[in-house]
Amino acid sequence: MSPRQIGDRRQKPSLDRRLGPARRIKKRRDFLAIQQGGKRVRSKHFVVAYRQLERQPESGAFPESRIGITITRKVDKRAVGRNRVKRRVREFFRLFRHRLSFAADIVVVALSGSTNLTTEEIQRELGGVFRRAGLFPQRAPRRQTQPHEET
Questions:
Q1: Residues in the chain with pLDDT < 70?
Q2: Whether 108 contacts 141, CB under 8 Å
Q3: Buried b (16+ CB within 10 A) or exposed e, 28-57
Q4: How far apart are CA 13 and CA 9, in angstroms?
């Protein structure tokens, strides 16, 4: 067997890092319910609306957090630019959803200028918005190290 064939038979990692359809918001009524009934936090290029999910009474488990992304033609006329922003926001959610403080349905609305951002800039800006919204835990303040006094 070649190394390639052996590699194809590996088990999937136990932590599923994919962002499947169950973790995406697709229906208009869901988007509207979150945007109208949820909390909002805004940055220069994004508006994040979210609604905390409650524990399911029958099982006692929390549902999976989901994300929906909206970007209008006013932001970028070309679908290529709009889709690039959506991919980058989905990737941010996929990578950092384990850091969420609670289960939530989240809608990210991309504003003008967001198509000019790099992946790192999008991640930095969304990370700040998620922290301000309370979706991510606050960073611990940096402690000032003081030099030791010698006696």
A1: 1-17, 60-62, 140-151
A2: no
A3: eebbebbbeebeebeeebbbbbbbeeeeee
A4: 12
Domains assigned to the chain:
18-133 (3.30.230.10)
Q: Is 81 helix (H, G, I), strand (E, B) or coil?
A: helix
How many other β-carbons are positioned within 10 Å of the β-carbon of residue 123? 17
What is the per-residue pLDDT for 66?
Answer: 94
**What CA dihedral angle connects 95, 99, 100 and 105, to 10 degrees?**
10
pLDDT recorded at residue 141: 62
Angle CA(70)–CA(49)–CA(112) in degrees, nearest 5?
Answer: 45
What pLDDT is recorded for position 82?
A: 97
Q: For residue 66, which phi and psi values (nearest 5 degrees)? A: -130, 155
pLDDT for residue 11: 47
Tell me the one-letter amino acid at 144. Answer: Q
45 in Cβ contact with 125 (< 8 Å): yes
- DSSP of 84-125, one letter per residue? HHHHHHHHHHHHHGGG-SS-EEEEEEE-TTGGG--HHHHHHH
